[in-house]
Specification:
352 residues; alpha+beta; Alpha-Beta Plaits; four-stranded antiparallel beta sheet
Length: 352
């Protein structure tokens, strides 16, 4: 990847997956609590209904005994019956009070305490007393049963609503995950598309535009050139690069090419664009073509090479002053660049 372009990273998905897990666990715990409370309410209702039935059965048995034995003879039997049949079943009351504490169960317990006390009083007509207590016990048991039924239905409704809410919440989170994943994939796709486009249009070693980029971007710049705002097209070739590359090694040769690219870009500045055409050949387009620009480029590269051996030869053509097309301007610049090379060769030969 060219220098200066950060790697593509996608947002981690684990926070959203953790949110789904947390919501699921909390939902299971809450629903378990609601289910347990609903079971308690149903059990309390069953206890209250059982107590109501016990009262009804006891009253019916007592009335039957009194009719068959008479009030006096039945009194002793009835007291034993109450102790055995009615009060023994009141053992359901502690469980009922634990499952459904409240005024209804407290009232029912009071009635049973009064019935127990009445069985110990010999001066009280037990049958008449039970007939008075029975409606109160029955009413208290019915109220308790009705209250617990309403409680169970309310809890069941909350449980259903909780299930729906949890499902909706989890589906919402899943939808958000999918949406974010889709958005991340789209962003990654766009980023990779941009990266592929960049790689297709730039040299991987120097980061400069390649010949394809030059054909697209350079053509636009040249097309916009006018006689009052000409564009300069430069061709640059490194002298002695092959010998240096063979002697110093490919790594050193690559470093020299990168140094050449950076120096070329600095000289062209904000008004220009630099391209690597391949090997040790570069091209530049500038909106500020200075006649002295080729020499300044050569000097800048020579300084960048710091005595490593190679130098540069540069030729320039102007658009539209000398030609109207990019290809023609490059051919003209190439001709002038090789003229510079030949001139340097004559100079070196003469000096030798």
């Amino acid at each position: 990847m060219p220098a200066g372009r950060p790697p593509i990273r996608s947002a981690p998905a684990w926070p959203w997956l953790l949110a789904v897990i947390v919501v699921g666990v909390v939902g299971v715990v809450l629903l378990s609590v609601l289910d347990e409370r609903e079971e308690q309410a149903q059990l309390a209702r069953a206890h209250a209904v059982a107590i109501e039935k016990v009262v009804d059965d006891a009253v019916a048995d007592i009335t039957d005994l009194q009719a068959r034995l008479g009030a006096r003879r039945a009194d002793t039997v009835i007291r034993a019956l109450v102790q055995r049949r009615l009060l023994s079943r009141s053992a359901l009351l502690p469980d009922l009070q634990r499952l459904a504490p409240g005024p209804e169960t407290d009232a029912l317990a009071r009635v049973f305490r009064e019935i127990g006390a009445a069985t110990l009083r010999r001066d009280l007509n037990l049958v008449d007393g039970l007939r008075r207590y029975a409606p109160r016990a029955r009413a208290a048991a019915r109220r308790t049963a009705a209250t617990q039924q309403e409680r169970a239905e309310s809890i069941a409704q909350r449980t259903r609503l909780g299930q729906i809410a949890i499902v909706v919440l989890m589906l919402t989170i899943v939808a958000l995950i999918l949406w974010r994943s889709r958005s991340a994939l789209m962003r990654a796709s766009e980023a990779y598309t941009d990266e592929l486009r960049h790689l297709a249009e730039h040299d991987t070693l120097t980061g400069l535009g390649n010949r394809r980029h030059l054909d697209e971007e350079g053509a636009l710049v040249v097309h916009a050139a006018t006689s009052t705002a000409p564009v300069g097209v430069l061709l640059l070739d490194l002298d002695g690069f092959k010998a240096y590359n063979d002697t110093a090694g490919h790594a050193a040769g690559d470093d020299l090419l990168v140094d050449a690219a950076r120096a070329f870009e600095r000289v062209l500045g904000a008004d220009g664009h630099a391209y690597r055409l391949g090997g040790d050949e570069f091209c530049g387009i500038t909106r500020a073509p200075d006649p002295d620009l080729p020499r300044r480029v050569e000097d800048a590269l020579l300084a960048a090479f710091a005595g490593r051996g190679p130098s540069a030869s540069v030729g320039m053509a102007l658009v539209p002053t000398e030609t109207d097309e990019l290809a023609a301007a490059m051919r003209l610049a190439d001709t002038r660049m090789y003229a510079v090379k030949r001139g340097k060769g004559v100079a070196r030969a003469t000096a030798g």
